[in-house]
Write a structure and sequence with these properties.
Elements: E1 10-14, E2 18-22, E3 26-33, E4 36-44, E5 49-51, H1 53-58, E6 66-67, E7 72-80, E8 85-92, H2 94-100, E9 104-111, H3 119-133, E10 137-140, H4 144-150, E11 168-170, E12 173-177, E13 181-185, H5 187-215, H6 227-251, E14 255-259, E15 262-267, E16 270-276, E17 280-289, E18 296-307, E19 312-318, E20 322-324, E21 336-339, H7 348-360, E22 363-370
Parallel strand pairs: 7-10, 17-22
Antiparallel strand pairs: 1-2, 2-3, 3-4, 4-5, 5-6, 7-8, 8-9, 11-12, 12-13, 13-14, 14-15, 15-16, 17-18, 18-19, 18-20, 21-22
Helix pairs in contact: 5-6
Length: about 375
């Protein structure tokens, strides 16, 4: 792997004789051995990430020494309680994760039992990588909630982790702040619905054509003879599914805006629904999680607002299963509803809920369900 002569690059040391070099549009990971440096991985804005064969093989990255930017979802820096280290890496998209067996790809680490010695250094390296890759950056702070729950420290004696910076990207949504806080649904949701409509249409045509030509005796009746009628029933059911999918496509909000006036769901520039701030009692973040396992698995997630008339309004859903490869799992004991604060928030969905609650100036609650 070769590198062009670049402008001056800042250098950051990491564990294992690793060095990170970066400037405005380049990021490199180098290894030092016997006084010689070699480039392990290199990123340049707008180009695939390149790496040497042995580095990619150890991390089960694609052969050929190239990784498309489309395969990288976000850059993550987090502190692990197990080895008391800051870990820097990126999460890959689900298709590549299935091939590798994990979404997490680690690049560098910094041993830091105090959690505050290398936090700024590691953050600089992580933010520089995210800037170069043009991907979101997530900082996962040390899990203070476990120590507080164990009674080893008092909550008031430990400052909470900061609210995770925007944008926050999860599942099919991105939370950002422009003139107001807003959730923006990704374009893939609309594409999936259009593809689903086309498949339904093809199946409807197939079922109706086969059923009609059979009933008009163009071809012989099958055994049992009710199958052509069953085909018509299935076709009618698929038409109903098409109508529902089309209704969702044109009516489901693709943006949810949160400001001092309340919460508003928008489809384009048109309001699908509105809830004034004075009607809102609290924000609820709901997650269906696993009871056991080292990894925290979220099977389903939602952010809802609890209204003062005791009803709920859904802001968004996270329908797909998410595995958090880096954050320490919160101890799971039973279904519960507890206050959600910066002391116990970990996941992207929880952080997004805190952003909403902070903007509205109301309480945020965490509704945990066990699967």
């Amino acid at each position: 792997m070769t590198s062009k002569v670049m402008d001056r690059m800042d250098r950051i040391s990491a564990s294992g004789n690793l060095t990170i070099e970066h400037n405005i549009d380049h990021w490199r990971l180098l290894s030092t051995s016997n006084g010689q440096e070699r480039t392990l991985l290199e990123a340049e804005t707008g180009k695939p990430v390149s790496y040497i064969e042995i580095f990619g093989s150890k991390r089960r990255l694609p052969k050929g020494g190239k990784l498309s930017l489309d395969d990288i979802q976000r850059v993550v820096l987090g502190w692990s309680h197990e080895d008391e280290c800051w870990h820097l890496g990126f999460l890959v998209e689900p298709e590549l994760a299935e091939q590798r067996g994990s979404r997490w790809c680690e690049l560098a680490r910094w041993p830091d039992p105090e959690t505050t010695v290398f936090n700024e250094t590691a953050s600089e390296a992580g933010r520089a990588l995210a800037r170069t890759l043009q991907r979101p950056f997530n900082l996962i702070e040390p899990d203070r909630s476990a120590a507080i729950a164990a009674g080893t420290i008092r909550q008031e004696s430990v400052p909470p982790a900061p609210l995770r910076s925007l944008p926050i990207q999860f599942d099919q949504w991105t939370l950002t702040r422009q003139s107001a806080l807003q959730f923006v649904r990704g374009s893939q949701w609309a594409r999936q619905h259009v593809i689903r409509l086309l498949w339904y249409a093809l199946l409807v045509i197939a079922y109706f054509v086969l059923s009609i030509v059979t009933l008009t005796q163009v071809i012989a009746l099958p055994k049992p003879e009710f199958l052509p009628y069953l085909g018509l029933v299935v076709g009618i059911f698929l038409i109903a599914m098409m109508l529902y999918t089309f209704y969702e496509l044109i009516n489901r909000p693709n943006r949810v805006v949160v400001d001092n006036n309340g919460v508003e769901g928008l489809r384009g520039k048109n309001a699908a629904w509105q809830v004034p701030k004075e009607s809102i009692a609290a924000v609820y973040v709901s997650e269906v999680v696993n009871r056991k396992g080292k990894k925290r698995v979220i099977y389903h997630g939602e952010i809802n607002i609890h209204l003062k008339d005791d009803s709920f309004r859904s802001i968004l859903e996270q329908p797909h299963t998410v595995e958090d490869d880096h954050a320490a799992p919160t101890p799971v004991t039973d279904d519960t509803v507890i206050p959600l604060t910066l002391y116990n928030a970990q996941t992207d969905l929880q952080m997004a809920g805190l952003h909403v609650a902070q903007t509205l100036g109301i309480e945020c609650l965490y509704d945990q369900r066990i699967k």
